[in-house]
Known about the structure:
Layout: H1 39-65, E1 68-72, H2 79-86, E2 95-103, E3 107-108, E4 111-117, H3 125-128, H4 133-136, H5 165-168, E5 174-181, E6 184-187, E7 190-191, H6 198-204, H7 213-216, H8 246-252, E8 260-267, E9 276-277, E10 280-288, E11 306-311, H9 321-326, H10 332-339
Antiparallel strand pairs: 1-11, 2-10, 3-9, 4-8, 4-11, 5-6, 5-10, 7-8
Amino acid sequence: MKNKTSVLPREREAQPSRCPDNTAFKQQRLPAWKPQLTIASVLSSFFLTGAFCLTVGVCLVLSANSVREIQIDYSDKCSDCSKLCENSSNWNKECHCSVNFTLKENILGDVFMYYGLQNFYQNHRRYVISRSDAQLLGRNVNIQRSYCAPFSTYGNGTPMAPCGAIANSLFNDTIDLFYNHNSSVIQVPLLKTGNSWWTDKNVKFRNPESYNLSSAFAGTARPPYWQKPAYLLDEEDKRNNGYLNDDFIIWMRVSAFATFRNLYRRVRRVRHFTEGLPAGNYTFQISYSILSDSLRLLESYSDMEVDRICVVSWQKAVQNAFPVSAEPPRDLGHVLTDGSSCAGAPSQPTGELC
Length: 354
């Protein structure tokens, strides 16, 4: 008689476990320490933190105070030009004026020149979005689909390059600095390139690809308030033209506040100015061409220019808000007052937003 062998059922395959590893970290068994808060421990922590912040704040204040700054408001001294620009029919006219000032002592080191504007609301929503980043990258885009309107195309359909309200209101005063030395007038050499951010110059802005810029911008037209097309912004340096122009790039980085300043030039340290600016008499020659009808959003900023000469530290300017923020907190009004020390003289708003 044959023995019948019973076949056992196959065991089920082991299913992978969904539980985390049995480790102290994943099973939340790590040792912990809970500090015992007492009056002595809390007060000592506050005093140590306050002493550290106070030390850092004092160091930053000393560094900020080492920055030399000279502020010259030429809007009042060029009042005739301001009156000329108040009439919108004179938008394409230039007015020349000069401002004299004296340096009582040498300004040593790297010297930077800024222009400042007050009550110019670059943070207005319609103004901020009025640009085409794709166009500024040199791409062939349909301007009609951008936010550049009404500064996108002309009545005949010709696209503007660059388009938008920001580009159209480009600061276009020309400022030259002269040094009066021994009855002779010497023009201070100023650097107009190398002033913008590296990321802006090499990443955010590109010229259209072509064998020359004039052909790259063929079929386009300059913004209505520009006196030159984009490919002729700098007639002395061909590499500083088009969307890669430093003045244009700096202007396109809009400010968050109505009072702001932008870097305009750096003093080239050659000949008489190898150490900086020597003491003596200087003259600003200003080609005043502010457009009083810019955007219709802001009726004028022709009386809001403030020019500054700065010798900067590692903080790049007089920054009292940074040192104050490192000090132990006091009252908000004091912090705001200290933080506005580099702003220009106050003025009343001359335009209103739509």
